[in-house]
Every structure is written in C-alpha cells, then in structure tokens.
Amino acid sequence: MNAYKTKSIESLEQKMRDMDESSLRHHILQSAKDFKTSWIELGRALYTVWRDKLYKEWGYSTIEAYTSKEIGIRKQTAMKLLRSYYFLEKEEPEYLKNDYAGSTDTALVPGYESIDVLRQAKNKKDLDSQDYASLKKAIFEKGKDAPEVKKDLTALIRERKELDPEEAREARRFSLLKRFLGSLKGLKRELETAKLGSSALIKDADSLIKRIESEINL
C-alpha cells in the first residue's frame, strides 16, 4: 500500500527544518510529531489493558480511571485511541501486520482521529463498501487528515441522502429545529439576565422550548 505523510506531519517537519535542533521549540515540535505517529503502540497497549482488565490489578475500577489518573490522558482521547486501534485490529489487520509493521517511517502512520472517522464511516448504514474504500484510500494512500476525511464523509452522506428526498427533508427539519431551539434558549437567557422580558413572555418561551424538544425527542 503506497502511503503519504499527512499534511499535519509534513507541516511539523517543515517547521523543524528551519529551527535549531537543540532548541526547546524544535523539541516541542518533535514531541508533537512523536505523539501523532506513535499512537498505534499506545493504542495497542491500552487495548491489552482493557481486554485483560489489567487496570483492576493496578487498583483502578475502570479503564477510564486508569488512563486519566495514571497516564494523564483525557477520557475522550483515551477512548478514541482505544477504539481506533481496535478498529484497525478488527477491520484492517493486514495494515497492522504488513504496512505498519514493515514501515521504517512512522510519519506515514495515519492519525488516530482519521482512523476514528473511518471507523464511524464503517458503521454508517447509508454508505456502501465502495464509499468505505474511497475513504480508506484517502487516509492510507493520500495522507488526508481527519478534518479533510470528515468533509469527504459528510459529502458522501449528503450525496446518499439526496437519493431519498423524504429522509433528506426530515434531516433538514431536525437540523433547523435544533438550531432554532439553541437560538431560542440563548435569547431567553439574555432576557432573563438583563431582566428585559416579562414573566408571561418567559413562560411562553419555556413552553415553546419544551414543545420543540418534544418534537425532536430531546
């Protein structure tokens, strides 16, 4: 599998080339690069800890408590690392076995956030195997970062939705109601804080908020 460095890695390396290697600034950029390219090993280790429940032997009740208190990684980040590695092991074992294992340049490793987007795409019922293959190629062969892959995924989903006008209409309705609800809640808070709205007006706003929440099942 031909692989390209992601834009974020290329950007870091370009900045490092223009700096004194002994400087703190260069060291920080190197550390950032190492984090972006060594996540698979950390994900593999965390997966072992989670699978074998080793965290319990070490005095922690949950994997989240272990990663937060001992490693110092936020729950969201730790879970994304764990899910991304598990996804590769389950869905793309050949990559771990051949491409990753045989690579001498860790900068070619796709970011865990990009893999997490691919994992989400795999579970999208609106997408088919060809769509998945397209996103996979974008990550492994074109070196696209997570934001770019997310855009590709959103475009694919929108394209598939357009094939079903009724589903597209319902999705647009939900989106508009959610935005309306957010704006309404924000304006109500401002009225209350500034004491510019009557109690009757605030009551009507509360009633409308509850009605909208009921329609979109929040």
Describe the structure in your own words.
This protein has 218 residues and is an all-alpha fold. Helix content is 75%, strand content 0%. The longest helix is centred in the last third of the chain and has 30 residues, at 165-194. The model has no long low-confidence stretch (mean pLDDT 81).
First and last CA, distance: 45 Å
Give the helix level as a range of percent.
over 70%
Order of helices and strands: HHHHHHHHHHHH
- State the low-pLDDT regions, or none: none
Strand content: under 5%
**What kind of sheet is the major sheet?**
none
Global structural class: mainly alpha
Could you give the count of β-strands? 0
Radius of gyration over C-alpha positions, nearest whole angstrom = 23 Å
Question: What coarse outline follows from CA principal-axis ratios?
Answer: extended
Number of domains: 2
| Average pLDDT metric | 81
Number of helices: 12
Secondary-structure topology with pairs:
Layout: H1 7-17, H2 24-37, H3 39-51, H4 54-57, H5 63-71, H6 75-91, H7 93-102, H8 112-122, H9 129-140, H10 146-161, H11 165-194, H12 199-215
Helix pairs in contact: 1-2, 3-6, 6-7, 6-8, 8-9, 8-10, 9-10, 11-12
Primary descriptors:
218 residues; 2 domains; 12 helices; 75% helix; 0% strand
Compact summary:
By secondary structure, the chain is mainly α.
